[in-house]
């Protein structure tokens, strides 16, 4: 039932065109499938008549060996899961970060369990392990929501300040700029 619900949510995300949500549901579906396989394996061993605790102990020792040998693989998989869960960036977002004293910037073209693909402005494709994102500060340029700050300096002579009303400045600003809130008007004397 749960896999079917995930499949329905994945199809709904695909219909909406939300690629990131679709990938997230696909990742959850793969994780759920893995858990079902592991549980089926454990229950199958128990049904055969073997003691599950001894098999789990052997698995624990094997897990330790794999964990020490494949630390980077596990780190990348865990960070891939965190990226898909916390959603710091999505497919299509422009991101910037430093790695080994080099600025890496580009558009996210794919987010996977192990790696993320970026396309640079020079059309180069970077394949970046997900562990890199947990060790660096990532700037998501696409989440600015097209809001920018501008400093507009309007010079007036001191003898002309009484001629200008703040409402006329607001009207001039509204005619030239589109913004969410009107600017504040500050009057300063000569410096």
Textual characterization of the structure:
One of its GO terms (biological process) is transmembrane transport. The chain crosses the membrane at residues 31-49. Residues 33-70 form the Mechanosensitive ion channel transmembrane helices 2/3 domain. It is found in: Cell membrane. It is a multi-pass membrane protein. The structure is a single chain. The protein is an alpha+beta fold and 191 residues long. It has three domains: 2-69, no CATH class; 94-144, Roll (SH3 type barrels); 150-191, no CATH class. 50% of the residues lie in helices and 15% in strands. The protein contains six helices and five strands; from the N terminus they run ααααββββαβα. It has helices spanning 2-16, 19-48, 52-69, 71-86, 131-135, 166-176, and strands at residues 94-99, 102-111, 115-119, 125-129, 139-140. The chain has a five-stranded antiparallel β-sheet with strand order 4-3-2-1-5. Strand 1 (94-99) and strand 2 form a beta hairpin. It is elongated and about 100 Å long. Residues 1-5 and 185-191 have low confidence and may be disordered.
One letter per element, helices H and strands E, the order comes to HHHHEEEEHEH
Number of helices: 6
Question: What is the makeup of the main sheet?
Answer: 5 strands, antiparallel
Structural class: alpha+beta
Strand segment tally: 5
**Apparent shape:** elongated
Helix content: 40-55%
| Backbone CA Rg | 27 Å
Q: What are the low-pLDDT stretches, counting only 5+ consecutive residues below 50?
A: 1-5, 185-191
Mean pLDDT across all amino acids? 76
What amount of the residues lies in strands? 5-15%
Distance between the termini: 73 Å
What's the number of structural domains? 3
* Lateral arrangement of strands in the main beta sheet: 4-3-2-1-5
GO biological process, one term: transmembrane transport
Subcellular location: Cell membrane
Membrane topology: Multi-pass membrane protein
Domain Mechanosensitive ion channel MscS: 73-143
């Amino acid at each position: 039932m749960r896999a079917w619900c995930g499949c329905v949510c994945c199809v709904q995300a695909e219909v909406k065109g939300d690629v990131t949500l679709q990938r997230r549901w696909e990742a959850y579906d793969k994780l759920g499938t893995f858990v079902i396989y592991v549980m089926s394996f454990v229950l199958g061993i128990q049904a055969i008549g073997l003691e599950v605790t001894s098999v789990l102990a052997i698995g624990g020792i094997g897990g330790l060996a794999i964990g020490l040998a494949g630390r980077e693989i596990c780190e990348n998989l865990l960070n891939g899961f965190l990226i898909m869960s916390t959603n710091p960036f999505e497919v299509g977002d422009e991101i910037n970060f430093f790695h080994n004293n080099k600025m890496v910037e580009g558009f996210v073209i794919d987010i996977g369990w192990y790696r993320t693909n970026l396309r640079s402005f020079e059309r180069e494709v970077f394949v970046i392990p997900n562990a890199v994102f947990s060790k660096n500060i990532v700037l998501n340029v696409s989440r600015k929501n097209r809001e920018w700050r501008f400093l507009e300096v309007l010079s007036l002579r001191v003898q002309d300040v009484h001629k200008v009303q703040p409402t006329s400045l607001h009207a001039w600003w509204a005619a030239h700029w589109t913004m969410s809130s009107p600017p504040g008007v500050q009057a300063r004397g000569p410096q």
